[in-house]
Amino acid sequence: MDAPRDPIEEGATDSADLYDIATWEPRSWLDRLSGGVYGGIRRLGRVIVVVLALAILGAQFALTGLAAVSDPVIGAFVLMSVVPAFGLAAYIWYADVTTSEPLSLLVGTFLLGVLFAGFAAIINTLAGAITLVPVVGMVLFFYLVVAPVEETVKWLAIRLYAFRSDRFDAVIDGAVYGAMAGLGFATIENAIYITQGISEVSTIGSQQITSAGQTAAVRLLAGPGHVIYSAFAGYYLGLAKFNRENAGPIVVKGLLIAAFIHATYNSLVTYLSDILAFAGLAVAPGVAFLGFVFVYDGVFGYLLYRKISRYRSAYRQVNMGTSVSFEDEEVARDRADFEESADGAGDFETSEEFAENRRAEDRRTESQRADGDAADSRSSDRDSL
């Protein structure tokens, strides 16, 4: 959709000077000053957000025991807890068939994911009173607070930095940077859970190490979820960048998808034991949790894989100069047909196009036949005379 234009601009010739009438561009010192002030305010706003996030992170180190991650053993547990999430993020980066994303943008997005997690922690804490209502309150907390807030701050980690770069030049780049934001968020979240677990153990030494190891094992399975959720939101942010006329609804769609998957995971895993008991299934809690995470993340990971594969397929078809079909491969194969062009070169056409050509050919043949019949009829009439 073209941008709306003033009626003077629409009716004026190209030679008309419409400056300060229907169009505007920097010409005077005041114009340049206005542009500089606007740009400065935008840059200052981004700086304030980052500085505030750093302040929150510093407070977490000082007040919540997060400084314990400086211990080599605890730090190692934190790193191990994000290995699956890192592997998933690396795969999404590898699956990008367009130009490779620069390390500076990937690392920057990861760090912003770490920093902005503090915003989510504050909001979740302030809204935690809703959990006093049994079951319903907790589920509402997940769907209305935790998931939307956390997915929004991860989205912000992409939008504030990588999104603005010229290297963010393809829809799939959004999924790559979304995965990095999710990895950063999962890293700091795992670090907080692990250090909190240590602080709850009164005995210093082996019990703290054991507690850290147990928490890291649980968080090991939670990390990939954050990557999946924010990769979905990031993909739709990429789609919005190249569809500016519908950018808002596209972004909202991505956030709604990510938040729904996230909130559903939190709700189900929180009440997994109760659900199994209600269903009459006697499964050990650890086994149930392990199985649930593999199935849940597997399903949505596969859907993300399908979305990325669809983009890869379309990109390769475009690069090969063939027509692009967004149908399932099996359906596309059934509908596709290969025809030889007049000069003998191969020309890939869909069966629908081929059928249309055949119908046009049939119409021409019928027309020629009808003309021939008419000519024969006139000749026969003349003979009879």
Description:
The chain is mostly helical and 385 residues long. The chain has two domains: 35-321, no CATH class; 341-376. 73% of the residues lie in helices and 3% in strands. It contains 13 helices and two strands, in the order H-H-H-H-H-H-H-H-H-H-H-H-E-E-H. It has helices at residues 7-11, 29-63, 72-81, 83-94, 103-126, 136-159, 171-199, 206-241, 247-270, 272-278, 285-319, 329-335, 351-384; strands spanning 336-340, 346-350. A hairpin with a 5-residue loop joins strand 1 and strand 2. Mean pLDDT is 83; it is low at 334-351 and 381-385.
Short key terms for the protein model shown above:
single chain; 385 residues; mainly alpha; two-stranded antiparallel ribbon; 2 strands; 73% helix
Provide the structure class: mainly alpha
Provide the β-strand percentage band: under 5%
For the record, give the distance between the C-alpha atoms at the N and C termini, rounded to a whole number. Answer: 67 Å
Q: Can you summarize the main beta sheet?
A: 2 strands, antiparallel
Number of strands: 2
Rg, rounded, reads 30 Å
How is this structure best summarized?
This protein has 385 residues and is mainly alpha-helical. The chain has helices spanning 7-11, 29-63, 72-81, 83-94, 103-126, 136-159, 171-199, 206-241, 247-270, 272-278, 285-319, 329-335, 351-384; strands at 336-340, 346-350. Helix content is 73%, strand content 3%.
